[in-house]
């Protein structure tokens, strides 16, 4: 995670949920994640932002550890989970501010449901499922992040991640030119991500089209007219694998 990303996401956090394409992308993504969920599962949402995905998945799993490196994003999620919010009944989501690079990170050792902390004599918490939505295109080193995810999972645990596909030069239009800071790549290339996940050690790796997101784009690069610009359809991939 680079400095421009941190600054950008802290600045955008307060208004994140008022971006209609972010909300629609999450609503569409949930359908792709539900088949991976089970009522007994402890899951980790890597790059959870304001918790849009975590809060929709929470009723379908035992617990969610929602992790983001941008404190502004975590502040918004924490406010959503507070007693004065409409999400106050959600008791199985824990918001954690961390740049996740170490699967044994001490900040992950709290059970969101019971709030019990694992002692240092116990081995680190591991998860049944790691999800991550709209994050991979911001990650400089994809092999490193999948290695971290692998370490976070129980044997038999699964990774399932969604992001827009790099389907060619037009994929660049996903972001307006003013928001290219911290964009490491213009979407995910199918063959590249399949290879990275397999080389991490995951089995039964699949990379499939999950849904298509209609999204307004700039009429010309840098024009700054995204709110009135033409609509373009962006394919999203769901990439999954199982830890043996
Ligand atoms: C485009 S936002 C997506 C947020 C959310 N998943 C959503 O769809 O609304 C990407 C998020 O990933 C976070 N992020 C990127 N790399 C991370 C890492 N290694 N650990 C934790 N958070 C990370 C950023 O801070 C940012 O909030």
TrEMBL record:
One Pfam family per UniProt: Methyltransf_23
This protein's UniProt keywords: Transferase
Keyword Phosphoprotein: no
UniProt entry tagged with the keyword Transferase: yes
Lineage top rank: taxon: Eukaryota
InterPro entries noted in UniProt: SAM-dependent_MTases_sf
PANTHER family found in the cross-reference section: PUTATIVE (AFU_ORTHOLOGUE AFUA_2G14390)-RELATED, TRANS-ACONITATE 2-METHYLTRANSFERASE-RELATED
Protein name (Swiss-Prot/TrEMBL): Methyltransferase
Lineage: Eukaryota, Fungi, Dikarya, Ascomycota, Pezizomycotina
